[in-house]
Amino acid sequence: MIKPTPNPPQRLFTVANGISTEDLLVNLSETLASANALSCDLAFNLESSKREELLGVAQLIELAQLLADRVHTGFGPATTAA
């Protein structure tokens, strides 16, 4: 039997309340570093366009890592580009 509407998404993971912002950012940073290492390791076992695609994903992960690190270390008041 085919249902007319799909099941709503199920929440598999949650973040516990009471964790400091700094701890959350550290965990985020470590998770991104792990994802980057995994994607790079996998990419180097591929060839051609699939390798390039996965290296592109690794680059996006690295960008997210840089953003998370900037938030974590703080960089003073926001400035606007001239």
Question: Which structural traits does this protein have?
Answer:
82 residues, single chain, mainly alpha, flat
Structure description:
- There is one protein chain.
- By secondary structure, the protein is mostly helical.
- The protein is built from two helices and no strands.
- The chain has a domain at 21-72.
- It has helices at 21-43, 48-73.
- Helix 1 packs antiparallel against helix 2.
- The longest helix has 26 residues, at 48-73.
- The radius of gyration is 18 Å and the shape is flat.
- This is DUF3077 domain-containing protein.
- It comes from Pseudomonas cremoris.
How many strands in all? 0
The topology string of helices and strands comes to: HH
Q: Give the termini separation.
A: 60 Å
Helix/strand/pairing class, anyone? mainly alpha
Helix content: 55-70%
Calculate Rg over CA atoms. Answer: 18 Å
How would a textbook summarize the main sheet? none
Separate helix tally: 2
**How large is the share of residues in beta strands?**
under 5%
Task: State the shape.
Answer: flat
Please state the average pLDDT score.
Answer: 85
Low-confidence stretches: none
Would you summarize the structure shown here?
The protein is mainly alpha-helical and 82 residues long.
